[in-house]
Design goal:
This protein is mainly alpha-helical. The chain contains six helices and two strands; from the N terminus they run E-E-H-H-H-H-H-H. The longest helix is centred in the middle third of the chain and has 24 residues. It is elongated, with a radius of gyration of 27 Å. About 12% of the residues have low confidence.
C-alpha cells in the first residue's frame, strides 16, 4: 500500500473521493521548509489588516468622538428630549458598527466608554455633542482611501442622521437658537 499525502489509502479509495492520484512519499510528515513557507504566506495575507488598522488613526479618533457624543446623549434629561435623542443614539451605534465591521480600528485603540462630565448645562452638552459629531465626520472625510468608500459613505449617513435627531432634540429642549450650527 503506497503512502500518500493523505495517509495510507488504496489508489481506488483516493480517486473515489475525488482527490489527486497517489504519490510515493519518502516521509509521512511535513518538511520544516514547508512549515516556514506556510507561516510566511499566512503572515503576508494577514499583514494588510494589521497595517490598515495602524495607518488609519482618523477612524479611531472618529469612533472615539462618536462614542463620547453617545455618552453625552445618555445623560438623563427631560423625557421628551431623551426620546428625541434615542434615534440619534441608534444612528451612532450603527456608525460605530460600520467602522468596526470595516476593521479600521485596532482593538487596543477602541474606547467604548469615554469619560464625560455629567453635570454640564444642557446647552453646553448639546454644543459638545454637535461639535463631536462634526469632528467625527471631518475625521472620516479626511481619509482618502477610496477602497473603503461604501462603508465610509454609510457611516457618514448615520452621523448626518444623528445630527438631524440631535437638532430635533435641541428644538424640544428649546436650545436650538443657542447652538450655532447643526
Amino acid at each position: 500500500m503506497p503512502k500518500t499525502l493523505f495517509g495510507s489509502f488504496e489508489r481506488g479509495e483516493i480517486e473515489a473521493l475525488g482527490l489527486s492520484k497517489t504519490e510515493d512519499c519518502r516521509r509521512s510528515h511535513v518538511k520544516p521548509g514547508t512549515i516556514r513557507l506556510t507561516l510566511l504566506v499566512a503572515a503576508t495575507m494577514l499583514a494588510p489588516a494589521v497595517i490598515v488598522a495602524q495607518v488609519h488613526p482618523h477612524y479611531a479618533n472618529a469612533r472615539t468622538y462618536i462614542r463620547t457624543a453617545q455618552m453625552l446623549m445618555r445623560v438623563p434629561a427631560q423625557s421628551n428630549v431623551q426620546l428625541t435623542l434615542k434615534p440619534a443614539d441608534d444612528e451612532l451605534d450603527a456608525a460605530v458598527k460600520e467602522i468596526d465591521h470595516a476593521g479600521m480600528v485596532d482593538r487596543k485603540h477602541m474606547v467604548d466608554r469615554p469619560a464625560i462630565k455629567e453635570n454640564m448645562e444642557d446647552v453646553d452638552r448639546f454644543s459638545s455633542i454637535v461639535t463631536l459629531l462634526h469632528t467625527a465626520r471631518n475625521e472620516i472625510q479626511e481619509e482618502a482611501d477610496n477602497t473603503q468608500a461604501a462603508w465610509r459613505s454609510s457611516t457618514l449617513k448615520h452621523i448626518n442622521a444623528a445630527l438631524e435627531s440631535v437638532h430635533k432634540a435641541a428644538i424640544a429642549a428649546r436650545l436650538d437658537r443657542q447652538i450655532d450650527e447643526f
